[in-house]
Amino acid sequence: MNHINISSSIPSSTRIGPFTTIEGKIEIGKNCKIATSVAIHGEGVIADDVIIDAGVSINGKFSFGPGVRLGPNTVIENNVEIGEQTNVGPLCCFGTPPQHKQYKNEQTFVKIGKRNIFREYTTVHRATTEHIVTEIGDDCYFMAYCHIAHDCVVGNGVTMANCATLGGHTHIGDYANIGLLVPIHQFSRIGKNTMIGMGYRVSRDVPPFVLVKGEPLYITGPNRIGLKRSGFDDRRIETIEKVYDRIKQQMMSKVGVLEQVLGDIEKEYIGNDDVQQIIEFYRNSKRGVVWFNKAGGL
Question: What would the CATH number be for the domain defined by 3-172?
Fold first, then answer.
């Protein structure tokens, strides 16, 4: 037996399983499939072709785009927006309160883009400050047991392997690849198209376009495979390598000359967007940028 008390009618093409409760100011689209023992309470929109599997719990304000799928026993807590064609695996938790002692139940949010994949047990927490958003872009892949903490901003096309963990206020650039079991310190920034090797802890900013590994973490060179997958040709990759090699060589030979080196490079590569991103990343770093491999190469 179902208990349904909502503000709008349910299209005839939508199917709702037994023992399901739906209450509140809720709009449900066409061709949806809501399974058995689902509990939905609050205010929100369920667009066309959404699938909500058995045991899902949804509370508060929410919005699910067309084709979203929520896996069994997933929890959507409050103020969560999920973009179209996003697939959420079993036992995920989105919109739960931030793990922060200063949080006082302010109205904060989670916004998730389109075509993302979240595997089982992934968690995404709301932000800590009034009207601030924990935000994830489009076309990302989060493997099992990933954690995206409060106030994080994750770009497009990001991959996080199993158990990768983002501390609060972390920013992840587009197409970054974060390896298995990698923990990233709060307030860190990870540049676009960067690859972090599995199991290494990140306590400083990681600049764009590089591969990093080791304890302590260091730059080994351009993330060649990732860059080629993103459409970079050999010439672009060679330029990136030359810029990083120049930063390394001059920084290792002199102390306190980073801004001078960046200024010289900026003048030499006027109009090169890749180089400008590297320069801006170094200039805007507040935690410091990971160093280079002293053994050779970059």
Answer: 2.160.10.10
